[in-house]
Structure formats: C-alpha cells, structure tokens
Specification:
Number of helices: 4
Distance between the termini: 31 Å
Helix content: over 70%
Structural class: mainly alpha
Shape: elongated
Largest sheet: 2 strands, antiparallel
Number of strands: 2
Length: 171
C-alpha cells in the first residue's frame, strides 16, 4: 500500500501543477488574442521551437488546439486520481472504477487526436513541412498506448467485477 500512497500523492501533485499551469496558460492566450495592443511588439513568439516574429490566426488556432488537448489530458489525470481514491478505500471493484478507467482512456485518445490533427495541419499547411520527427512518432505510440491501456484495463476490471459478483452468489 505504500506504493499506492506514493502514486496518489504524485498524482495529486501533478494534477495541482497542471491546473495551475492551465490557469496561467488560458488567460495568456486570451490576452494575446484579444488584447494585442498591450503585448509588447518586440516579443518574439516561439511556436513549435521556431521563432515566427508575429502570430497569425493559424498560430492562435494551433495554440488553442494544444491547450484543448492538454485539458483532455488533465481530465484523464483527474479521473485516474479518483480511481486511486477508490483503490485507497479498498473498493477495487466499484462500478465507478470501470467507468473512470474507460473515460480516462477515451480522454487521453481524444486529447491525442486533437493534438495530432493540430500538429499535422499546422506543420503541413502553415509551415509546409512534409516530414514528421521520430520523437513525435514515439510520443504518438506512447500516448495511444496509454489510452488503449486504460480502456483495456476498464474491460479487465469489468470482467473481474462480474466474476467477483458471480463468486459471491455461489455457496
């Protein structure tokens, strides 16, 4: 149980830091979109490790899509935090555990799909790049793997829950 406590604490810390990060990121995006006149002109904006000099509509849409995908990842982390709370209470086969695992897997996959389309559209249409980095491919496998892992884990917990209920009914 000490590893479960450690994982719960680590998840809470990462979740709080993610919420703080989003709490700063969203207002910064709105200021850059709607109050361009208060942002100094000599600031060089960095998007995808390239200096663009100025931000156009494409960059705003790209940044909004990335923030939206981060929101999905944070939601998945929130659901995972709730699952760990059930594990801590030793309610491993609670119906919400199955639902939260499934929803967190779907949230990870939805966040990745938004991020993937944003990166592909931005790189191919705006930056006119036709190559994809190896790091992005490995990141893609990792994120899709995590999302599918949570969905499969929900199915495993559902089967285990049903077996436990059947076992409890037999004499």
């Amino acid at each position: 149980m000490k590893w479960l406590s450690f994982l719960r604490t680590l998840t809470k810390i990462i979740f709080v830091l993610s919420i703080i990060f989003m709490a700063y990121l969203i207002p910064i995006l709105f200021v850059m979109i709607f109050a361009k006149d208060i942002v100094p002109e000599d600031i060089i904006y960095i998007i995808s490790n390239e200096s663009t000099g100025s931000i156009g509509v494409e960059e705003y849409l790209y940044a909004t899509a990335i923030i939206l995908s981060l929101g999905f990842y944070i939601y998945a982390l929130y659901l995972f935090k709730k699952v760990l709370a059930y594990f801590h209470k030793r309610e491993v086969f609670h119906e919400n555990v199955v639902r939260y695992f499934n929803q967190s897997g779907k949230a990870v996959l939805n966040g990745y799909m938004i991020e993937l389309f944003a990166v592909i559209l931005y790189n191919f249409l705006v930056k006119q790049q036709t190559s994809v980095s190896t790091d992005f491919i490995m990141y893609s496998f990792l994120i899709v793997g995590v999302g599918l892992f949570f969905i499969v884990l929900s199915e495993v917990f559902l089967m285990a829950k049903n077996l436990k209920e059947d076992n409890d009914l037999t004499i």
